[in-house]
Amino acid sequence: MSEKFVVISGCSGGGKSTLLAELDARGFATVEEPGRRIVAQEMAGPGLALPWIDMAAFAQRAMALALEDRVRAGDLQGWVFFDRGLVDAAVALESVDGGELDRSVLEAQRYNRTVFLTPPWREIYVTDPERQHGFEEAVAEYDRLERAYPALGYEVIVLPRIGVSERVNFVLARLENLPGA
């Protein structure tokens, strides 16, 4: 487990990427969401692992990329903030194939036990070429994640619907007394 690896997860369109951009601007190490990177690669190429074409292939690639991200982030100092991670990809795969989460991989590759979730926030939710699913699908995804993280032993903190700077301050205040600071 790496206590310095902090996951920002939750609802699609809930402000995760904006929050990570602000953390990056403040000098923290950040890791871009695997799904967004995969969609960009697939849209520039064959498009076979796009979530709206083949969600299982997409989720499997997201799991592999999340594992690679952990290895690359291993030498970084201080907090490392992940825009989603391995659990998110595994939950997506589970929702497609109906199987159970592979707990052995998820237990061997743990993040900080405190995970921050961005809740559904209709007022800021938008679709774009890389996010084609609707708000209701995003809420269903959030519900799965909200159940999965605690079931895997993580403490979930739901982020308030406040401005990005205030959200960053909220996250940092919660992490202040945790290992990895």
From TrEMBL:
<dbReference type="InterPro" id="IPR027417">
    <property type="entry name" value="P-loop_NTPase"/>
</dbReference>
<dbReference type="InterPro" id="IPR038727">
    <property type="entry name" value="NadR/Ttd14_AAA_dom"/>
</dbReference>
<dbReference type="Pfam" id="PF13521">
    <property type="entry name" value="AAA_28"/>
</dbReference>
<protein>
    <submittedName>
        <fullName>AAA family ATPase</fullName>
    </submittedName>
</protein>
<feature type="domain" description="NadR/Ttd14 AAA">
    <location>
        <begin position="6"/>
        <end position="167"/>
    </location>
</feature>
